[in-house]
Amino acid sequence: MLVSVRELTFGWQDEPLFEGVHCELQEGAVVVLDGENGCGKTTLLQLIAGVVPHFSRGKRLEGHIIVNGRSVFDNPPRDFFPYTGFVPGRNIDFFLLNGNLDEEAALIQSVVGLKASDIERKKGELGEIFSDLHELWSTSFGDMAFYQKVLSLFTIYYLQGARLFLLDEVLGAVPDGQLSVWMELFQRLCRQQKGIVLTAHQLNEHAFPVWKIKDRKLLVS
Amino acid sequence: MIDNLYRNFPRGRHYLVRQQEPGEIDAIISKGLFTHLQRGRKRNLWGELAGQLPEWGRKIGWVPDNFPLVFFSETVTGEIAGTLAATNNRIRATRHELRRAAVLLRQMELTDLSRRNPFQLSQGETKLVWFLCQWAKTPEYLIMGHVPTSLSTRRAAHLVTFLKNESRAAAANTTFPTLILGYSPGDQQWYRGLLTENYWTDMEASVLDGI
Questions:
Q1: pLDDT in tens, A160-199
Q2: Which residues of A fall within a CB distance of 8 Å from B123?
Q3: Which residue of B has its CA nearest to A144?
Q4: Do B85 and B93 form a contact (C-beta atoms < 8 A)?
Q5: Where are the domains of chain A?
């Protein structure tokens, strides 16, 4: 199991945003996190990623989240590297540590201990899916549009070998013709036994199983 | 900058602009504002920008899809009322402006956000509150990226209906903002209702280039 959420209650204030949340993400699964604006979709993703409570703490936190066999609340986010890849819907620049993708790839190679051939193979795999990715490798992150930054951060996580992808509101930035490409990518990741949780509005909710937050409860379909 | 806007988007009408890809309008606007700074002409252009921004900010409201936003108040109501006060060249909001902020929040069904800290809102809520702040200052032009981005289906439909109803009222009111809304061809269905109104024009986003 990639993620296990047990009896989770969280509130930025005394009043809980959601309570008693219980859900699991298996290997090879894609789940869409759905709900009204402000219901806590992003917060739940941030909790799974460990951004909350390690970098921003609410007033109420009960329950457990287990990722890769360890408690997210008891271990800092760095302990889940390279397992978890979190692509935020805003402030994405904070997650891009170097000047461009080539520099990120070099960093990953040294930190994770990959061979250059591994990096090239993974570059090739993504290049098969995203035909214009090759243009981004040497492009400065500062010169990229939001979608290009999203694609870059995803690429970084793919290179480092993440198994759990948490994508917050990123499909809204995907150009019309590219949505089917991302769907193909998700299917490929599923075949590799990786897991994806994404928040998305206006996505055909029948495309993937849905976790819907409504009236502070999580409804799993 | 603003003269180009007057020329390409004459007042008295509203405009739907086709984006080649999501975020194109944001890219054009931010490029228009910040390109010179990135080119290193900082010393001269701070002064140039400082001279232009107050006029730009007064006449143009901008609701981007993905762009860092800055708030100045500790509550949503205070933020909107503060925008109204600033429009009238004051720092502190009057009781009337606080009431007006409450009315705007009620119109957008956001009353439950009124006491929340704007920095603690979700992405969709932030967009709606920012929209109200821009709306409250009654700019000459209100420019938005793709309206439904970051919004639930219900919220997006509500906002489009709000814009449609308000833009009708604008036909007889010259102080009403001229709306420039972006859309991607795949998401055109959101705006069918608008294009049936004869004071809406469909055009390419690239027309914005150069403002």
A1: 999 999 999 988 888 878 888 999 999 999 999 999 999 9
A2: 37, 42, 89-90, 168-169
A3: B27
A4: yes
A5: 3-220
